Amino acid sequence: MTHRRTFLADMGLGFTGLALSAMLQRDGVVPAASPLPAAGEGPGVRGNSLHHPAKAKSVIWIFLSGGYSHLETFDPKPALNRYAGLTFDRTPFANPLRSPLHDQRSRSVVAAEINQRDTYPIIYPMQVGWRRHGQSGIEVCDWLPHIASCVDDLTFVRSIYTTDNDHAAENQIHTGRHRLDEVQPSIGSWVHYGLRSLNDNLPSFLVLGGPTRSDTRASIDANYLGPRHAGIPLNLDTNNPLPNGRRSPDVLADEQRNEFDLINRLNGLAAVEYPDDPNLRARIRSYELAFRMQTAVPEAIGLMRESEATRRLYGLDQANTRLAGERLLAARRLVERGVRFVQVYPSPYGVWDSHRALRSNHERLCATIDKPVAGLLKDLKQRGLMDDVLVVFCTEFGRTPGLEQRGGGRDGRDHHPHGFTVFFAGAGVKKGHVHGATDELGFHALEPGHYVTDMHATVLHLLGLDGRRLEVPGRRRLNVDFGEPILEILA
Questions:
Q1: φ and ψ at 142, to 5 degrees?
Q2: Longest dimension (CA), the chain
Q3: CATH of the domain at 68
Q4: Which of 140, 344, 400, 448 has the fewest CB atoms within 10 Å, i.e. the most exposed one?
Q5: Sign of dihedral through CA atoms 457, 463, 465, 470?
Q6: In the chain, helix, strand, coil percent, each to 5?
Q7: Which of 95, 94, 92, 91 is nearest to 120 (CA)?
C-alpha cells in the first residue's frame, strides 16, 4: 500500500515528484508509512517547551582523550608518597583490590582472571607536587597553574567512575554505555534532540577536533535519534570549514542560490504529499541549513577577528598551546552565536594514555591545555557568559595508584575506571566547590560514586531538560542510562 501511494503521489507531482524522489533516494531517504517521533523530531522542536526552568543555554564539553591521571591533576594523594614502593596490604588502609566496589563497577571484555590490568599492588608515588589555591583552598597539581588560578569559579567532582577499563570508555563517557551494551545516543545528541537551536544558521551540536578516530564516532553520534541530531565536525580553516559542504569552485553563488530555491519549491510540493514523513522533513531542513552554514560558519570561526589580547589569553601566540587555544576560542565564538553544545577535543587521540613516562608525558601535555582552558574560563567570565554557558572538563578514566608493571614498566600508570575527577564551571553550578572523593590511595570513588550518566543528567537538568522525559517510544532505556543530576554541585 505504501509503495502504491508513493507511486501515485509521484505521478501526481509529475517531474517535480520524480526529481525529488530521485534526490531523496540518492541520499538514502525514502517516504515512511509510520514514522517514529525519534526519527527527526525532538520535544524541543515541537514547541520548544522546557521541562523546568533552565540555568544554562549552552554547553562547552572539553574532552581529553587517553585518560589523564586524576592523581597528578585534581586529586592529589599524599599517601602515595608516604607508602611508595609498598603493596596495598602493607598500608594502614583497606586493600582496594578486595573492596566489593572493584567488581561491582568493573566489566571486562575478556575473562577477569586474564584481564588484570588495573590490579597492580605496588604503590607508585605522585610525579608532581601540589598546593592549595584560591580562597576555596582547592588542591591542584603544579603542572596546571593557570587552571589552578580559576579554582574559585570551578566545581570539582572527584567521585566519577566508568565500567570499561579500555579506550572504548571514550565512547562510554559520552553515551553512558559499555561497549558490550546496546549503543545509545551521545550526550550532545540528546541536547540537540531536546532543544531548539538558538541560531537558524548554525547547528545545535558542533564538534571541534574530533571524533578522534573512526571507532570513536559513537562519541558524537545520534544513533536511533537520527542523523539530524548527530554532531557536525568543523575544521578551523575558514576557507574550508565544511569539507563536504562547500560550494564547488565552478558554481557561482547565484547559481547555487537558484538551485536551493528550486529544491525548496520541490520540497514544499512533496511535503504536501508526505506531511507525516520525519525523514523528509529532516532532509529538507538539512538542505536549508547546509546552505546557510556556508556563510555563517566561516564568520563564526574567524579567530582573526579577535583582539590580540584575546588571542594571547588562549595561547594562540605559542606553538605548544595554539591547537587547543584555537579550538577553545572557536568554541566560545560558537556558543556566543547560539550553538547549544560544542564538543571540544583539545588534544589528539589517546595522548594522555601514560602507561610509560607519565612524568614527562603529563608535564608536556598539561602545558598544552592549561593556558587555553584557563583562557576560556577567564574569557567567559569577563564577557558575562558564565551565566549562560556551562563548561564540562573530562576524560574517559583516571590512572592506577599502583605502578604498571606490564612489560617491565617502571614509570607509568594503567587505565583506571574506578574513580577519577572532572570539573564543571559556569551556569548553574557552585563556585570553589569540591564534591565527592576517592579513598586515601585514590583508587575507588567513595559512595555515593557517580556513574558517567550522572554527568549527563546534570547537564540536561541545567539546560531545563529531564532525561527521563526524553525517552523515545520503542527505545526503553535502563535506569542507569538516565543517571541522576548531581544536586550537590548546583548553585
A1: -70, -10
A2: 83
A3: 3.40.720.10
A4: 448
A5: negative
A6: 40, 15, 45
A7: 95
Residue 279 lies in a domain: no
Q: What is the average pLDDT score of the chain?
A: 86
Residue with cell 587517553: 66
Give the cell for residue 371: 593556558
Residue 299 contacts by C-beta under 8 Å, 6 or more apart in sequence? none
Q: How far apart are CA 376 and CA 191, in angstroms?
A: 22
**pTM, full prediction:** 0.85
Distance CA 111, CA 108 (A): 7
- Residue 15 falls within a domain, yes or no? no
414 Cα distance to chain centroid: 23
* Residue 194, SS3 per DSSP: helix
Q: Name the one residue in this structure whose C-alpha cell is 526524553.
A: 470
* Burial (0-12, 13-18, 19+ Cβ within 10 Å), 112: exposed
Alpha-carbon distances, residue 391 vs 155, 202, 282, 369, 376 (angstroms): 10, 20, 29, 15, 9
Whether the per-residue pLDDT at 169 is higher than 70: the answer is yes
Q: E-assigned strands of 356-462? A: 389-395, 398-399, 415-416, 420-426, 433-435, 450-451
Decide if 436 contacts 450 (C-beta within 8 A): yes
CB atoms within 10 A of CB 1: 6
DSSP letter string over 293-320?
Answer: HHHHHHHHT-GGGS-HHHHHHTTTTSTT
C-alpha to C-alpha distance for 289 and 33, rounded to whole angstroms: 26
In a domain, 298, yes or no: yes
pLDDT digits (tens, 9 = 90+) for 403-456: 999 888 999 999 999 999 999 999 999 999 999 999 999 999 999 999 999 999
Domain count within the chain? 1
Please give the DSSP secondary-structure letter assigned to residue 404: P
Number of neighbours of residue 189 by Cβ within 10 angstroms: 28
- Dig out the grid coordinates for 267 from the structure: 520540497
H or E element that contains 187: helix 187-194
CA atoms of 147 and 149, how far apart (whole Å) = 5
| DSSP 8-state assignment for residue 471 | P
Q: What is the tens place of the pLDDT at every residue in 139-154?
A: 999 999 999 999 999 9
Do 445 and 163 meet the contact criterion of CB atoms below 8 Å apart?
A: no
* Residue 401 domain-assigned (yes or no): yes
Q: Which domain holds residue 178?
A: 56-252+292-489
